[in-house]
Amino acid sequence: MKLTYYGHSCFSVVAGGKHILFDPFISGNELAKNIQVDQIQADYIFVSHGHFDHMLDAVSIANRTGATIVGSWELYTYFGQQGVKNVHPLNPGGKVSFDFGTVKAFGAQHSSSFQDGNYAGVASGFALKTSDGNFYYSGDTGLTLDMTLVAKWVKLDFAVLPIGDVLTMGVEDAIQAAQFVETKTVVGVHYDTWGFINLNQATAKEQFTTVGLKLHLPAIGESIDI
Questions:
Q1: Which residues form the Metallo-beta-lactamase domain (predicted)?
Q2: Sheet of 158-162, strand order
Q3: What pLDDT is recorded for position 120?
């Protein structure tokens, strides 16, 4: 699978013949200023929760590409009200099949609200089974034993986990999360965007390596085969 990192928690995976985009926050991220939002491809856009730093560019990308936005019932309702033509609800515990494969939503331990303070539904993560491989994106979350349920549903090739601490898991908890979901390969996200989630990348990679795990930290705009 080809994964491209667009900064913060935004990334895309090409799998099952489709471009699958997650948590698009690009135009508001100074670190991603060299990314051209209007050139990003998407057939599906998964939104983990309602915070602006995970959905800022979702409407514009969906309207340009015709992509289907997938998220909690509250996000489904919100994006429909914003005029997005293709939206699909998916709450934790539910699963749905698309043309690239099957997705199951899992709960995330995190707050979720829109910019105006209104409730944006429960925060979620997503596990995807595709013909090219399987992966899990936890969304913004703290460490939770519910992650062990992911491994009961799917054998993962990799997981995408937040590692910046303060607002989400830090490195130590992300290592435990990788062990809970039974993967050896992790892509780290949700770090360095603001000063209070700065990451020492060399130390983080060393911590993962020490316990037999591989941590990928692609540069913004970089694509990796995984």
A1: 7-190
A2: 95-98, 101-107, 124-130, 133-137, 158-162, 185-189, 214-216
A3: 80
The mean per-residue pLDDT over the stretch 29-40 comes to 97
Which token pair is 201? 């990348």
pLDDT at 195 over 90: yes
- What is the pLDDT of the chain when averaged over all its residues? 97
Residue 97 identity (one-letter amino acid): S
Residues 94 and 102: their CA atoms lie apart, in Å, by 11
Amino acid identity of residue 8, one-letter, is H
DSSP string, 152-219: HH---SEEEEE-S-SSS--HHHHHHHHHHHT-SEEEEES-SSSGGG---HHHHHHHHHHTT-EEE-PP
- What are the C-alpha distances in Å from 65 to residues 40, 48, 54, 169, 194? 9, 20, 18, 32, 30
Q: What is the mean pLDDT of residues 188-203?
A: 97
Residue 103, beta-bridge partner list: 96, 128
Whole-number Å distance between alpha carbons of 70 and 173: 27
Between CA 145 and CA 176 the distance in angstroms is 10
pLDDT at 73 over 90: yes
